[in-house]
Amino acid sequence: MDVAELNPVRLRSVTVAEAMGPITTVSSSTPMVEAAAIIKTRRGRALVVETGDDSPSIFTEFDIVKVIADGGTVENRTVGDHHTRIAIAATPDWTLDRAMETMMRGQFRHLVVVEDGVTVGMLAMRDIIDAILEPSEQPEFDPDETVEIAAIVPAEAERLLHDLRRSAKQHLVAAKCDCELDWIEVVIGQAEERANLTAGELQEIWEQRQPCPTLHAMGGGGD
Fold it and tell me: pTM for the whole thing?
C-alpha cells in the first residue's frame, strides 16, 4: 500500500482515539462457535480476549481459518485455545500514520488500543481507510451498481448490497485486491436470480467468500 495515496495530511493529523472503534470482549473459555457468530455480526472486527494476562489478546476470523486449514473444526474448541497474543498495542494519542506503519510492518489488520493499562478501543485497518479518505473519495451509492435490482429485492436487502459493495471498495483501497468486488457480483447475481432472498440470506452468501489471497500472501493478515 502506498501511504501517499491515502491523504498523508490526515494520516499525520488524525489520532487513533478519533478513528478507533469500540471493543467486544469474550472470555478465553468462550466456545469458538459462539465467538465466530459474534465476529460475523461485527462484520469481521476482532474480539478482545480476557486471559488474565497483562498483555492483551484478540480473537479474529483468521484464527478460525487457521484451525480449519489445519484440518480441525471449531466444534468443542474455545477461544483460549487459538487466540492471538498481542505484543504491540497502540495508545489513543498515536497518529494514524504510526498505526498504519505498525500494522504493515507486522502484517496484521487490528491494533488493540490501551491507555493506562486498560484496553479502551480497537483500531482496524478499515477504520484508518474510513478516516483518511476525503469525502469525494469515499465509495458512494452508485445507482448503476445496485439499484438496478431494487424493484425485485426488499429494501433491507438493497441496502445490504450497497453496504457490502462499499466495504468491498474499501478493501480494494486497503489491500489492493479486488477479490471482494468479484464476490459481491456473485451475491448480486444470486439476488437477481432469487428475488425472495432476505438480507440475512444474502449476508450468509457473502460470508462464504474465501479469505483475501493478498492478505494471505502477506502472512495471513487476519489479526
Answer: 0.56
Question: Which residue matches cell numbers 483500531?
Answer: 123
CA 93 to each of CA 22, 25, 38: distance values in angstroms, whole numbers, following the listed order: 16, 22, 29
Taking residue 26's Cβ as centre, other Cβ atoms within 10 Å add up to 21
How far, in Å, are 32, 80, 121, 216 from residue 47 at the CA level?
11, 12, 11, 20
Distance of alpha carbon 175 from alpha carbon 110, whole angstroms: 14
What's the chain's length in residues?
223
Cell of 13: 493529523
Domain 3-132: give its CATH superfamily.
CBS-domain (3.10.580.10)
Q: What is the DSSP string of 74-106?
A: STT-BHHHH-EE-S--B-TT-BHHHHHHHHHHH
Give the number of other CB atoms < 10 A from CB of residue 52: 7
Asked if 97 and 119 count as a contact pair (C-beta separation under 8 A), the reply is no
Kindly list the domain boundaries of the chain, sorted by start residue.
Answer: 3-132, 147-212
Contact 24, 60 (CB under 8 A): no
Supply 180's cell numbers: 471482494
Say which residue the cell 474465501 belongs to: 210
Consecutive sets of 10 residues in the chain, 223 residues long: mean pLDDT of each?
Answer: 56 90 88 86 80 76 81 81 79 93 86 89 86 56 44 71 78 73 81 78 84 61 47
Cβ partners under 8 Å of residue 115, min gap 6: 91, 92
